[in-house]
Design brief:
There is one protein chain. By secondary structure, this protein is of the alpha+beta class. The protein folds into two domains: 2-95, no CATH class; 113-182. The protein has helices at 2-34, 40-70, 74-95, 104-107, 118-124, 126-129, 174-182, and strands at residues 132-138, 141-146, 152-155, 161-165, 168-172. Strands 1-2-3-4-5 form a five-stranded antiparallel β-sheet, covered by helices on one side. Helix 2 (40-70) runs antiparallel to helix 3 (74-95). The longest helix is centred in the first third of the chain and has 33 residues, at 2-34. It starts with a helix and ends with a helix. The model is unreliable at 105-112 (pLDDT under 50).
Length: 183
């Protein structure tokens, strides 16, 4: 019994080693490819796929070892079948992360409320736009909210910036708008 326990512990240790190596490599490649942003849906997908491969491979190795020791019987077949099906389910779970998940409000938006990122991209460049959320429109003014500072950047399609006050949207210089949103 002691040998069986040691082999099970060894198998689990090897399984985690493979998963950790895969995770580390994939995250490093994501960081390298995307700057410091990591697409977590891709990390989850690949982690689940790696786990499914590890589960299936270990079930095959363990079943082969049990057949050599004890011969072919129902327990060995049952173990191999259950582990292979488990690996298949984990793989299918990873397939759920094929596309970038969208927040619930993005899926339920009306077509008239679709985000227009062009005014913000022209002002800040595409790399800084990732830190903003499109909040909607007020007439022709596009409303963008910064994720960290929670400040608004209100921009018209022609690039005019606005600040909301008690008197409505008042035009301001782009430098003032940027200072307001980042501080």
């Amino acid at each position: 019994m002691h040998i069986a326990e040691r082999s099970i512990v060894g198998m689990v240790a090897q399984e985690w080693y493979v998963l950790a190596a895969y995770f580390g490599t994939f995250i490093l490649l994501e960081v390298r490819k995307c700057g410091e942003r990591i697409a977590m849906h891709r990390v989850a997908r690949h982690a689940l796929w790696a786990a499914s491969v590890v589960v299936v491979l270990h079930s095959i190795v363990a079943a082969a070892a049990m057949i050599r020791r004890f011969g072919l019987d129902f327990v060995v077949i049952d173990y191999a079948l259950v582990m292979t099906l488990t690996g298949g389910l984990v793989y299918l779970l990873g397939c759920m992360f094929e596309e970038t998940p969208q927040p619930a409000f993005a899926r339920s938006q009306r077509p008239s409320m679709s985000a227009d990122w062009q005014p913000l991209e022209r002002m800040l460049g595409p790399s800084l736009c990732a830190d903003f959320m499109f909040m909607g429109r007020s007439e022709q003014i596009h409303l963008y909210k910064h994720r960290d500072t929670r400040g608004y950047l209100n921009i018209a399609p022609d690039g005019t910036c606005f600040r909301y006050s008690a008197h409505g949207y008042q035009p301001i210089r782009p430098e003032e708008a940027i200072e307001h949103v980042f501080h």
